[in-house]
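Give me structure tokens for this 358-residue protein.
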Amino acid sequence: MIVVDAHQDIAYNAFQYGRDFVESAWEKRRREAGTAVAAETGLASMGLPEAILGRVGVIFATLFVEPENMPMSSSGEKRCGYNTPRQAYEQALRQWDYYQRLVDSDERVRLIGTQKDLDAVLATWEPGRDLRDHRVGLVLLIEGADPILEPRQFEEWYERGVRIVGPAWSETRYAGGTGRPGPLTALGRELLEVLADYRAVLDVSHMTEEGCLEALDRYDGPVIASHSNPTKFWDHHRNLTDTQIRRLAERSGVMGVVLYNRFMDGAWRKDDPNSRVPFERIVEIIDYVCQLTGSAAHVGIGTDADGGFGAESMPVGIDTVADLWTIGDALARRGYAPEHVADILSGNFLRILRQALP
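Here you go.
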């Protein structure tokens, strides 16, 4: 049994903050102590060593670029951003190249683009395999579809190994998104038709409720919300309403629980030492989705670790991604059967990959 983490901005962290995935979270913290990086994004929580120790065998790794018109960072430094689709494409292509160099330079990391790739990674986690045998597989996910120059150009990204696409982050040419309300655009509807031709996974995280529900109605391929929580725990459009969750489940989709405190408790404040989110909140959110959908088949983990927040902004008991394994123990204590624990930790998202990978 492994953990699948359905959302990590690995390449973005490398370019924006100089964080190499191969380096441990602890080494990043030591190096960044007292720097603007630590002030802006917090304590690093992800790295290849922690992934291996925590049995995080598969990660959905993003190609994520920000629009230039996003606000200044908390440190006062402007983030790297794009103004045109061509700029978005070129920046995403540099991130894609980072992943190519990563797998070329470290045999512990492998890109997953086919069933054969997935099987090869999973085989390294079979019982009896030595720690040194374990491999972490990366599935490429475009978060915010502006790097796709026009819908038919997705063929190029598919040939490069992209298997998951989220049309929105903030507003894109394809859909409204977080902070920028709006539906699917005509271009977005065309993109869904192209994605369906390749049986790509559609990621509805960051889409508005209007756009999300239309996409779930239109798209007949595999669907996920890679990193979204229920609005019950934070009533904000960044989270999913009960209607969205039920509709996702009706489509046999899976949502990944985000471990950012703000998305788990709307009353949380980073600057308030008494405002802490308990570890049990993770289990409460998972259980809520299971009760709402009537099944343990539609929820998993999508940490968004180091996605603009650090370890101090995650629930008590989660310091690095090595701690994700303990979620399974907590689910077992709550009465979840071993097979359902396995589904939540990895099986549900692996099922989606089996549906999509050639």
